[in-house]
């Protein structure tokens, strides 16, 4: 069968000999299978596929077409698996593998690099394109189904070739209450079943249902099991056998329930009908974190999905949302909606600071800065944006940078083994086991120890290593196999024994080592209804799957999962891998804050001259960890001096005199219509101590009360002014505080103390010529004449 892409073969080869080439062709036109073979006439070809399932499936398909086994002329390389040799002419690989190869030798083994499905605009393919453009040693092929070719052509200074593909008429049907109804997850399984019944009656071949994720796929498969068709699941983690069922037609009619993996990366044969939920799981950026949200697809994605029918015969497109739903026109690119830690580290390891790399879409500056700050804190990149030795070591590891740092910096190989096995569990996308019930927790505690019933870290390490926990928990065998593959890969990288020879470790020692290496992982419980924990920057709450008890005061958190909240800036972050900690352990691990509590002037037989002591309060993330009673020096000395002066335990009477002098100075300024002095007694004393060079209590013993005298008004003006406008007036059996309002030409004499009940007489008061005088006691205000 001749595929539509054949129409541009000669033009493609002619262009490729001269320059880079962009090929715009719809899904199913044959670009992913034909272009690599054509390009191999000009050298060895690397085809970068966004998803593992597409890389392996396409390689297997092409190898079969060439009547060879994968790894001969056609091969592939994905994480933990590669079938290729030196003579392999076309290699399909995921972006992560391609980036690591670029880091190692700038892809010197390849002449042509093809970035397939580039319109998905993943951050890793954007970065790879920028690196290849900067390097300038490869011929580039970019394929796109929906991308704006003008911007891409200008970026690469080349032209785009277009293959229009083969299409049949597509009719559409809508299951929605309103023409503008947006995609919704409400009653999704029931609505999908209704659409499947309609499709079985109104179309003649296989049905492809687009859903946002594995949970929705499982629910819809369950709802449609009794329909007269074979139900198949297709997503990134589908077992190989299930993938093969989806990609090969059989004698029975099929309903394939798929995520976006079937939207662009794979062509599912035999499809005449597409049912579109209009939903996808898309990442967003919330407070610097990548969060996952359930979103309506954009119009470009809708066109992609619609294009999956009408390839082999007239098609039927069924939408579960309104025909005129106000969808976005295009899907936002990843560099604008995800944290950029991996991008920054990958670029740094390639020898180019990301700021010096012209990406097709410039990332937000705030996202780049957050990534730089985190990676510098981990010690993975320099201030110039280049990789350190640690960064180059941990980048190739199949785990996040923070986990790689912990593995590399563990103080012993025994703890490194435990950290590797834990990192392997975290790196595995699916859960290794179902959350234990209360009875299972009791069994874990009885057979393995308390930490296995309370600590996610300990239990996951035990499950990865095998043993008693497997007999108690409901294990996901596929996820466990993947985790063990991660663990053995990492163990081999550090020349450590394999899992079956794992060394025993001390749980408390591991927790303390992790906390010391990365204090950012230490969280303390907040006093709020959400039962959340905080580390001073982020707030999390334990996921339902976590073993962490609600009574825990603190926790070590190594893995989180963030969901987009209702607001554009809100994110709900769930902690999925936790270890309980005591507040005393937190004090040992984190750089906590200290604040001054109660201060004392302490005298005993050993210190007859006396010294300042205080309760120093230790806090972290706004939570008090405890306090200590100690001699005061350093950062808290001036504050403790102020507190003792305020209580007249030190330099008795000085604090009141300073306060009065400052108040009189401000009154002087107000009288002369000048700005007020931005100063109080506390600030003045602290600044004065600093100017006097007081850094210790020994220095404090060398100064007198007169050294702290406040002089705001010239002495020859102060005496007269203070007599004319006193702040306090003492009369027989009465003390008054005076409040001046010079602009209003009045003052208020406030009752302060004394036994006298009657208001003062005018003749008893200072002259205060030109000012109206009022007397106030409680809420009663009277004029004094």
Q: Main traits of this protein?
A:
Rossmann fold, 4 domains, alpha/beta, eight-stranded mixed beta sheet, 785 residues
Percentage beta strand: 15-25%
User: Could you report the average pLDDT, rounded to the nearest whole number?
Assistant: 91
Tell me the distance between the termini: 112 Å
Q: How many beta-strand runs?
A: 29
Shape: elongated
Low-confidence stretches: none
Count of the domains = 4
Q: Please state the structural category.
A: alpha/beta
Summarize the structure.
The chain is α/β, with parallel strands linked by helices.
Can you tell me about this structure?
- The chain is of the alpha/beta class.
- The chain has four domains: 4-162, Rossmann fold, CATH 3.40.50; 170-335, Rossmann fold (3-Layer(aba) Sandwich), CATH 3.40.50; 397-520 and 537-589, no CATH class; 726-784, no CATH class.
- Helices cover 35% and strands 22% of the residues.
- The protein has 27 helices and 29 strands.
- The strands form six sheets. The chain has an eight-stranded mixed beta sheet, with helices on both faces.
- The protein is elongated, with a radius of gyration of 36 Å.
- The model has no long low-confidence stretch (mean pLDDT 91).
- It comes from Pseudoalteromonas ruthenica.
- InterPro entries: DEAD/DEAH_box_helicase_dom, Helicase_ATP-bd, Helicase_C-like, P-loop_NTPase.
- Residues 12-165 form the Helicase ATP-binding domain.
């Amino acid at each position: 069968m001749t595929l539509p892409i054949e129409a541009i073969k000669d033009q493609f080869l002619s262009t490729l000999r001269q320059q880079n080439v962009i090929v715009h062709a719809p899904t199913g036109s044959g670009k992913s299978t034909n272009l690599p073979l054509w390009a191999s006439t000009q050298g060895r070809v690397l085809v970068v596929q966004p998803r593992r399932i597409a890389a392996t499936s396409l390689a297997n398909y092409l190898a079969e077409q060439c009547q060879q086994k994968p790894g001969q002329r056609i091969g592939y390389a994905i994480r933990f698996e590669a079938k290729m040799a030196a003579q392999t002419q076309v290699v399909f690989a995921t972006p992560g593998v391609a980036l690591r190869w670029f880091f190692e030798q700038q892809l010197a083994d390849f002449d042509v690099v093809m970035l397939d499905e580039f319109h998905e605009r993943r951050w890793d393919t954007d970065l790879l394109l920028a690196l290849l453009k900067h390097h300038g040693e490869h011929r580039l092929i970019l394929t796109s189904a929906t991308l704006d070719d003008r911007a891409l052509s200008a970026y690469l200074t080349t032209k785009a070739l277009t293959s229009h593909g083969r299409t049949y008429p597509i009719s559409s049907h809508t299951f929605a209450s309103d023409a503008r109804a947006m995609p919704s997850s409400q009653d999704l399984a029931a609505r999908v079943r209704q659409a499947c019944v309609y499709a079985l009656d109104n179309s003649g071949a296989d049905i492809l249902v687009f859903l946002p994720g594995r949970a929705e796929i499982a629910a819809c498969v369950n709802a449609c099991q009794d329909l007269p068709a074979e139900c198949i699941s297709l997503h990134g983690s589908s077992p190989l056998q299930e993938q093969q069922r989806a990609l090969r037609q059989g004698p029975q009619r099929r309903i394939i329930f798929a995520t976006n993996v079937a939207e662009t990366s794979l062509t599912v044969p035999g499809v005449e009908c597409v049912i579109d939920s209009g939903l996808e799981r898309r990442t967003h950026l919330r407070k610097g974190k990548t969060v996952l949200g359930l979103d309506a697809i954009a119009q470009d994605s809708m066109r992609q999905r619609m294009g999956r029918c009408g390839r082999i015969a007239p098609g039927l497109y069924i939408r579960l949302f309104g025909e005129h739903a106000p969808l976005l026109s295009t899907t936002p690119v990843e560099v604008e909606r995800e944290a950029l830690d991996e991008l920054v580290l990958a670029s740094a390891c390639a020898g180019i600071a990301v700021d010096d790399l012209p990406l097709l879409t410039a990332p937000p500056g705030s996202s780049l800065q957050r990534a730089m700050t985190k990676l510098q804190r981990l010690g993975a990149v320099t201030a110039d944006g280049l990789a350190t030795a640690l960064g180059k070591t941990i980048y190739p590891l199949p785990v996040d940078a923070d986990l790689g740092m912990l593995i590399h910096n563990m103080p012993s190989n025994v703890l490194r083994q435990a950290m590797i096995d834990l990192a392997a569990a975290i790196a595995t996308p699916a859960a290794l086991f179902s959350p234990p019930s209360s009875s299972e927790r009791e069994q874990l505690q009885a057979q393995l120890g308390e930490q296995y019933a309370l600590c996610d870290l300990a239990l996951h390490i035990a499950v990865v290593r095998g043993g008693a926990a497997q007999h108690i928990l409901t294990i996901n065998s596929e996820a466990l196999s993947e985790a063990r593959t991660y663990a053995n890969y990492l163990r081999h990288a550090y020349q450590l024994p394999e899992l079956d020879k794992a060394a025993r470790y001390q749980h408390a020692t591991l927790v303390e080592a992790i906390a010391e290496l990365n204090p950012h992982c230490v969280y303390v419980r907040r006093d709020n209804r959400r039962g959340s924990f905080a580390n001073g920057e982020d707030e999390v709450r334990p996921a339902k799957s976590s073993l962490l008890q609600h009574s825990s005061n603190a926790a070590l958190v190594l893995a989180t999962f963030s969901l987009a909240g209702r607001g554009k800036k809100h994110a709900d972050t769930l902690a999925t891998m936790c270890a309980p900690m005591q507040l005393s352990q937190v004090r040992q691990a984190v750089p906590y804050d200290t604040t001054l509590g109660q201060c004392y002037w302490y005298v005993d037989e050993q210190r007859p001259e006396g010294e300042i002591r205080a309760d120093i309060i230790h806090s972290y993330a706004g939570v008090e960890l405890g306090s200590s009673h100690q001699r005061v020096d350093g950062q808290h000395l001036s504050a403790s001096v102020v507190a003792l002066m305020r209580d007249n335990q030190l330099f008795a009477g000085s604090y009141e005199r300073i306060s009065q002098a400052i108040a009189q100075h401000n009154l002087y300024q107000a009288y002369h219509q000048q700005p007020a002095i931005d100063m109080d007694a506390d600030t003045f004393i602290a600044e004065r101590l600093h100017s006097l060079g007081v850094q210790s209590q020994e220095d404090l013993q060398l100064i007198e009360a007169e050294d702290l005298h406040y002089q705001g008004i010239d002495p020859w003006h102060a005496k007269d002014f203070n007599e004319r406008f006193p702040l306090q007036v003492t009369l027989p059996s009465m003390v008054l505080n005076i409040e001046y309002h010079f602009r209003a030409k009045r003052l208020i004499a406030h009752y302060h103390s004394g036994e006298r009940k009657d208001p003062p007489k005018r003749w008893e008061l200072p002259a205060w010529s030109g000012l109206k005088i009022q007397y106030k006691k409680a809420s009663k205000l009277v004029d004094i004449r």
